[in-house]
Amino acid sequence: MNQNDLTSIPLYGLMAEFDSAEELIAAARLTTKAGYKITDAYAPFPIEDLNDALDLPASRIPIVMLCGAIIGAFLGYGMQYYATVISYPMNIGGRALPSWPGLIPVTIEFTILAAVCCGIFSLFIVTKLPRVYHPVFNHPDFRRASQDGFFLCIRAKDKRFDYVATERFLRDLDPISVMAVEK
Amino acid sequence: MNALSKTEVRAELDGKSGPQFWRSLDELADRPEFREFLEREFPAGASEWPNDQLSRRHFLGLLGATLALAGVTGCTRAPADKIVPYVKQPENVVPGQPLYYATAMPLHGRGRGILVKTEMGRPIKIEGNPAHPDSLGATDAITQAAVLSLWDPDRSLAPYLHNRISSWPAFQAELLAVLQKMDADGGASTRILAEPDLSPTLARQRQALLAKYPRLRWHEWSPAGATASAPKPDYDLGKADLIVAIGSDFLSELPGSLRYTRQFAVRRRVLNGKANPNRLYVLESTPTLTGAMADERLPAAPDRIAAVLHSLGAMTTENLNAAEKQFAEKLRADLAQFTGSKIVIVGASEPPEVQTLAATLGARFPAAPPDQLTDLARNLQSGNVKQLFILGANPVYAAPFDLKFREAVAKATFAVHLALYRDETSACCRWHLPQAHFLETWSDILASDGTPSILQPAISPLYSGRSEHELLAMMLGDFQPDGYEIVRETWRAGAPNDDFEPLWRESTHDGVVRKLSAPAAGAALVANAPTAPRLEANQTYLLFRLDPTIGDGRWSNNGWLQELPKPLTKLTWDNAALIAPAMADRLGLTNGDVVELRCNGATVEAPIWILPGQADRCVTIHLGYGRSQAGSVGNGCGFDAYQLRHSTTPWLAVGLEIKKTGRRRELATTQHHHSMEGRDIIRVASAATFRGKPNFASASLTSKASLLPETPPLGPGRYAWGMTVDLGTCTGCNACISACQAENNIPIVGKRQVLMNREMHWIRIDRYFEGSADTPRILHMPVLCMQCEKAPCEIVCPVAATVHDDEGLNAMVYNRCVGTRFCSNNCPYKVRRFNFLEYSAPAGSAFAQRQNPNVTVRRRGVMEKCTYCLQRITAARIASDLQSRAIRDGEIVTACQQACPAEAIVFGDIQDRRSRVSQRKSEPVNYSLLDELNTKPRTTYLARVTNPA
Amino acid sequence: MIDRVISPEETYDSVNERISAIVFKRQRSWGWLIGFALAFLLLSVLVGSLFWLFFRGVGIWGINIPVAWGFAIINYVWWIEIAQGGTFISAVLLLFHQQWRTSVNRFTEAVTLFALACAGLFPVLHLGRPQYAFYLMPYPNTLGLWPQFISPLVWDFFAVVTYGSVSILFWYMGLVPDLATLRDRTDRKYLRRLYSIMSFGWRNSARHWNHYETTYKVIAALAAPLVISVHSIVGLDFAYTIVPGWHSTIFPPFFVVGAIFSGFAMVLTLVIPVRAIYRLHNVITDNHLRNMAKMLLAMGMFVLFGHFSELFMAWFSGDIYDQYHATHEALGTYAPVFWITFVCNIVLIQLLWFKYVRHSPVILFLVAGAVNVGMWTERYLNVVGSLHRDYLPSSWAIYHGSFWDWSTFIGSMGLFLTLLFLFVRFLPLVSISEVRRLVYERDIE
Questions:
Q1: pLDDT tens-digit series, residues A127-180
Q2: Residue A58 CB coordination number (10 Å)
Q3: CB-CB: which of B673, B756, B834 is closest to C393?
Q4: Could B713 and A93 be called an inter-chain contact, meaning their C-beta atoms sit closer than 8 Å?
Q5: Cβ of C222 under 8 Å from any chain B Cβ?
Q6: Model's pTM, two decimal places?
Q7: Which of B360, B653, C90, C211 is most open to solvent, judged by the fewest CB atoms within 10 Å of its CB?
């Protein structure tokens, strides 16, 4: 492909395909070293090494879930306390109000449910899913990303991105192929 | 009588099945009774009623008409005559304000004073009349259930000629002709068969009739054997220190039983920590409630009873076995000791030999009931009798089989049958006439001690029923008879000249006649005494007894009584051949085995029920079952014991043969386990032990440490309701169950459901046997909701459908209940009942009119239980608030307490130290059931103190 | 050691092919059709029974007073305990880095869900007035009423709701990458569209994997205490009461262990045939079965201990009611049920001590099946055996399941199997992405 039509089409980034996880990890490491920030890798299964290769920060979702758990616990116990002591106190088998040990089980369930829901929802938020269409799907072989393909993508909006230089850089990592991915 | 809604009937036609007539009246739809029921609704259309199978379309069409007519027949009708409320009330009915009328219930020819509670003109409940000697405010189960029969849609609704619907005028037309014939021959070929009935008016009419037709013969007969003319001995048990009952169930089967129970209880009660119980010896062949109360009880076959009694006289104990010897010696010693204060009672059904022997001990007994039926049957057979008038009785079903009464009646050309139901006899008579229920009629009757009462109707006849007085009046020529005037005429005669009205008013108001007098009853009657069977050793005896719930069969269409557990067997819906465990072992029989009983040349197939405490060589069968035309409820229950009953041996037959058939019949009992398993449930001690250790019952109780705060978080309220049940005086007579059923709209579930342990009674009477199977001690314990302060049922209910109110009631919120049944699982007393299916009578049915408007009718899938008659508490609270005062002690009586003849149940405010219930609870014998569970029941028991020699 | 859970000749491609083939293969499989037909027949039995139940009421069952709980509660406990197995395998084993879980967790999670569906049915059905089941839910109403929070049934309600929702989320979360794989392996337009929607457009981005992995692990960590709490609460339904035979502190742990026990048994009974039918020996190796067999044995011994401690406490407490119950259970009315339980749950599993048995799928299958039976009869003893004879002998009575009890029970199996058949047909029954990772880890070893 030649220079001018390249500039004419809107570009998402350059995508290089590798034929094994190891090569992908190595490539990712070099890319990061080369100072590329806005990059991403695609592999058919989670690979821990990729995270530090692309130096991705540890996910913060667990903290969100912890907060969810705490709120859930207070909500759970609070609701029961309000119901049995304030809103509609009744003499149930001559038990004290509140007979707090009886309120524990529901509190536990509330805690766990709240935590899990928070986790799922924040996962949706950080991954910006669901999103059925995405530019990377324009890559002809991208289907293999969910089977046995390993891809490395440098986004066009990375400030160090320069079509020619970046393409050369990728080719030096000797991938199976390097392709431009349209928006 | 209300009609059914179409939807209900459609539901029925969709093919519902099962015996539970009670669950929905509609289940009658495909039965002949139901067609009758339709006929009754509009007799006009009945003549063209199709005899063939009616089509659904036609059926629904007719139902529409029924619906239309419902308004006419359904509305409540105030009695036309002037009747007087028991308590001072405005003459006009105040909605929501019940009216009470004093009247009396005829039972075995004697009257029992009752108060009928009517709501908006509908009689819904019967209570005892405190002023009446045979009631003293108490009732028995049968009296309680009588109100259900009033509303029974199976009752006869119209006159029938040859089993085709007819009318009173038609009958009167025929009667006129017959009377002319009678005038000609002075009534020679005419007989009247009436039930024994100590009614002055009846006596007056009888004399008038005999005067008019000198050659007419009046027969008096009832399968119960009671005869009006025979004088009944009367006792004052309160004074007796020693009571000897020989085959006599004086605590439940005599007309005066309620009074006797009251007197007996007074002596058995522990009061202010002291007990001075009388001593009761019982010598009987088959266990009775009296036997269960005995201090010394000896089950023995009739010949052994005779032997024991003989040895007492003969001052010898040879040819007695160990048990008999022991019993005889104790009894002899006590007879000598309590010469002044002893009462010996012998049962009317005991063989003459035993009765004469008992007489030597000072027993008084009625002359053997004269049998007047044989003579009548003979004359019918020989064709001497052309006209036969049967008033109330049902001889075709209940007459001794040897009289062949069915054929006999057929011989009479003009047989008239006046009865509540179109029963077996009606089917054989030319005319059937609908009888008015005793709650619909004017009459009068004497109590067992001779006290007269006036019967006044609580409602005018629902159907076209007439009283026997009115029928007799017709025979005397008055074709527009008026029961009111007939009865008044009787009493006016004996009234001091012009002050009749106030006295009449007073008598009807009080329910007992004090200042008026009536012509003495009683007339010379033909009679031939039954020949006594010879009591030989090693014979097998067959004992006939009235059924403890449905009597001689006259109550067999009464569902309450059918489902009422028999006091000792706990059987429902069935009778059985009761035999001793030892005998069962000998014959290799178990409960439910169907055997062939052969006696007097007749045979009957009956299921076996093994009853501990039954005398060996004695088989007891109860009369009243095996009916074919009792009604949709009574038909087909049990076996017909009358088929073995010979006119010469009505109560005791010898030479019984038992043959196994190999078949079995399922018997529905409400209690399967009869031992207390060594658990400390019913606590008993002898008077001696009690004096040594008054708190024997509660001594075992040790307070357990608990982490729970002791005081309930809410309350206590203005009152703290509590109850005591005195096991020392409770005879287990079932009155409380029946009363509770009537008060709280408790449904009947039918035999199949009882077999599945789904009976609905809120209060039950547990019966345990203790000791050997042959001579066990029989113990009764009424169990109702304990209203636990730490109620296990409440904490497990997920929707707070059962909670505590601030007065200590364990309340049920029916419309909140989702039916998890967890509460029942966690109730250690198992007093909760669940509507597994739709049990309650549908809104359209006649029974819905009987129901207590102040008690919710429970739907399917809802848990229910005793709430100390909450509606009565509320009524009292309203009354007291209106007068801005506290509820007085004794102002609230629960239904069970009110019915109890022994005053064993006491209810009240336990905060008030002076209340009766508080005093009862302060007795040393007070204990709570399963106290180790720390449920803190509000209902506690008073341990039983016996007085063995 | 890793090749004990994934055979050497498997590659990314072969794995993808083998598993997704089950979904995509068009040639009709008679085995599946017949199986599904039978399952559906049973399901219709359930529907019929429920129709009659709602028409007539719970009276069509054998329940009575005193035995007010019958099959409905027995089945509820039985099913919810089966559910436990799946969660345990997928969550707890994940935390313990048991690689052998990867190829079975998807399937066991499905078992969990479907068992839960059956379990969730019964608490509602057994109500006298199921139309008011929502009274157990805290919702604003004009009466200002609330559920009665100290009732174990309310705890149950919340436990089952939580358990259900968490299981579904956890299961679907694991499913997302595989749905993406399916999306990418089909060329049929609409199917592709469907799968891409179902997989939320998952694109295997390393950044997504990063969050995904963490969340997945944390949820697993939460699921472990969740199942324990759920089954403790089921145990408390009984232990909370004062019924002799129920009122015992051993119940909550006893029920948790029993749950794992029956859970593994059910998984074995299902996995062995499934792997035979779909030739998955390479991903679900004999080693998987052996490990599960060992778990089964271990849990079985815990159950045995539970029984023992029940008897011991009955004797030690000196409570006459407990003692009566303990002796009556083994010798009384329901002795046959007791001895069936004894043989199935305690005697037979002792076979698992032998290597030979653990290595023979057929015998394993039979033993596991026996345990399923045993656990049901054990719950029958728990519920009926305790209720039919409590404090007052006067109210003692016998209980038998009616025709409709049985039809409802068997019908519920229909529901379970129908769902299971649909699952194995239309969704990858082994987690493709995780097996791919296995292959990767095997290669780098």
A1: 988 888 888 888 888 888 888 889 999 998 888 888 888 888 999 888 888 888
A2: 10
A3: B673
A4: no
A5: no
A6: 0.88
A7: B360
